[in-house]
Specification:
The structure holds 2 protein chains of 2 kinds. Chain A is of the alpha/beta class. In chain A, about 35% of the residues lie in helices and about 20% in strands. In chain B, the strands form 2 sheets. A 3-stranded mixed sheet of chain B has the order 2-1-6, covered by helices on one side. Classes of the chains: A alpha/beta, B alpha+beta.
């Protein structure tokens, strides 16, 4: 028997490419957000509103990750921004290599913010660095106020958290106070936004954060 | 199920390790991993993915041995170190919420045994 000491990070290839992505994006002065959520919590709807509200002031582009279909990319394209679709063919998360290939088809010199809409999944995407500045985790009120405790990895990986579909609060048993406690229990320094992509309620704080805090 | 992607990377690293030893004969390989509790990896899923990927390859008789690394943090206020249970990151001594994880995020291959 022979023993070989290896001492390597299993995801080192992804981490190395993510580091390069980060250097490329920062070198071009592009701020990048990786949006995580379960399917149907409103990532695309939030992006659509955000693109409209910041149009003409901030130059944005979107990388769309989906298991199948380019439905989301077609929705985004209607808002007049560059969009690149990544179809993972069953893959449950985006990785840094896939993002790099999408970055290569974007004119990064002409961008201020790049949004990456990850595959709808609150587990796997949390483990993969893409080279983003921040991960943003999105939860909708129909999913339940205990989700930060059930998916701590995602809520820990993301510095910023969005609660979406607040217009439905009167119709569901979602305790906003308990949700906030759970978010801050997992991530005491989280920045939390509460909004409705349907009514646009609460978007002011979010777009102000994008234009004033995220952008230098 | 990102365990499949992780199993693929483990196999890549094992292949690279073996490629550095051309001509070495082996019946089976044991891969020792150090995995932090905070990674929330599912050992059974990882084993299953690994076995599925090595079936009918020269590595077919290989197996994984996982050493779990407990999650620990240090309080930024009182500097006490403590074990993290159930993703409770607040300091049990002084109650401060701001603490720094010092171990538990590992996802490493530590060694490869060639049999």
């Amino acid at each position: 028997m022979e023993i070989i000491t290896v001492e390597r990070r299993i995801l080192e290839k992804n981490e190395d490419i993510a580091k390069e992505n980060r250097e490329i994006l920062r070198g071009k002065n592009v701020r990048t957000l990786d949006l995580l959520s379960s399917p149907g919590s409103g990532k695309t709807a939030i992006l659509e509103q955000t693109l409209d509200l910041l149009a003409g002031r901030i130059r944005m582009a979107v990388i769309e990750g989906d298991v199948q279909t380019d439905n989301d990319a077609r929705r985004i394209a209607k808002h007049g921004v560059p969009v690149v679709q990544i179809i993972t063919h069953g893959g449950c998360h985006l990785d840094a290599r896939l993002v790099r290939s999408a970055m290569d088809s974007l004119a990064l010199d002409d961008l201020d913010i790049l949004f990456i809409e990850n595959v709808g999944n609150l587990v796997c995407p949390a483990a993969f660095d893409l080279g983003e500045d921040e991960k943003v985790v999105i939860l909708s009120v129909t999913e339940g106020d205990d989700k930060p405790l059930k998916y701590p990895l995602a809520f820990r990986a993301a510095k910023t958290c969005i609660l979406n579909k607040t217009d439905l609060l009167p119709h569901v048993e979602f305790r906003s106070e308990v949700f906030r406690e759970n978010v801050f229990r997992i991530n005491p320094k989280a920045t939390l936004f509460e909004m409705s992509a349907k009514t646009k309620e609460g978007f002011g704080a979010w777009t102000a954060w994008l234009s004033d805090t995220l952008l230098p | 199920m990102h365990e499949m992607a992780i199993a693929q990377q483990i196999i890549e690293i094992v292949k690279e390790t073996l490629a550095c030893r051309p001509g070495s004969q082996f019946k089976s390989i044991t891969v020792y991993l150090r995995i932090g509790e905070l990674t929330a990896l599912v050992a059974e899923s990882l084993q299953f993915a690994f076995e599925a990927l090595i079936a009918d390859t020269p590595l077919a008789q290989s197996r994984l041995e996982i050493e779990w690394v407990p999650a620990r943090a240090r309080c930024k206020s009182c500097e006490k170190e403590f074990g993290i249970r159930d993703f409770e990151f607040a300091c049990p001594a002084c109650g401060a919420a701001e603490t720094e994880v010092i171990q538990g995020n590992e996802m490493n291959i530590s060694r490869v045994e060639i049999h």
